[in-house]
Amino acid sequence: MTAPGEADRLHAARDVPPPGGPVARALSGARTLFYKEVLRFWKVAFQTVGAPVLTAVLYLMIFGHVLEDHVKVFDQVGYTSFLIPGLVMMSVLQNAFANTSSSLIQSKVTGNLVFLLVTPLSHWAWFTAYVGAAVVRGLAVGTGVLAVTAWFAPLQAAQPLWIAVFALLGAALLGTLGLIAGLWAEKFDQMAAFQNFIVMPMTFLAGVFYSVKTLPPFWQAASHLNPFFYMIDGFRRGFFGVSDVSPWLSLAIVGGAFVVVAGIALELLRRGYKIRH
């Protein structure tokens, strides 16, 4: 039996907020969820990291072999060298998106999302953990692609700060977009449609395999409406010191897109969109 007054003390203890400021309380538990999400993809790293690296190498071997002597992009930059940063960034973006989206849709379909819903995690904690793990996976795959493909052509880091900025920002943006897609989708085929008809076309049409300056005027203008183009172009600027548009313009557009997408994701999480019935 509970001693007199003990029930009141226990009730009061439950009402005491965790130590720290508002940010610490809002993010309480995010580290555990982040660790769980990183462990989820790392335990099958052969599939989640190794397979995308192999795919990028195959792209490089095919396109590089066929077009090396026929396509010239920047002065004194061979086509294979030009192609490598595009493949690295494409791998970062696609895998960051896949990490958050696949995790949420699997949790929905299998029904284990309820174990997260019963925890006192704030929407900020959910966002930080899921997007943080997506960034880790995206950068892990991108690093693997760069390490393997760098043997095929000379590469240098002319402006390494742009490499880091656009890799982190691009992974965070696509991880957040994957979070929105995972919240929206209720079945695996809906998620596949989102990835196949939105993410993949926007990635392939963002200048991964070509410079948009080689396109006709109409398609150049169309490419400039694609935010993925600015991620890849800014990332490529870090390697060669030249790009199709100013890296500051790319930074403003990608940063603005991230703020908008993050705001939408946080609001959906706060409302419990399609995860609380």
UniProtKB/TrEMBL annotation:
Keywords: Cell membrane, Membrane, Transmembrane, Transmembrane helix, Transport. It comes from Piscinibacter sakaiensis. Residues 43-272 form the ABC transmembrane type-2 domain. PANTHER family: INNER MEMBRANE TRANSPORT PERMEASE YADH-RELATED (PTHR43332), TRANSPORT PERMEASE PROTEIN (PTHR43332:SF1). GO terms for molecular function: ABC-type transporter activity. The chain crosses the membrane at residues 44-67, 79-97, 109-127, 161-185, 192-212, 248-269. It is a multi-pass membrane protein. The keyword Cytoplasm does not apply. This is Transport permease protein. It is found in: Cell inner membrane; Membrane. GO terms for cellular component: ATP-binding cassette (ABC) transporter complex. It holds the Pfam family ABC2_membrane. InterPro entries: ABC-2_transport_permease, ABC2_TM, ABC2_TM_bact-type, ABC_2_transport. Belongs to the ABC-2 integral membrane protein family.
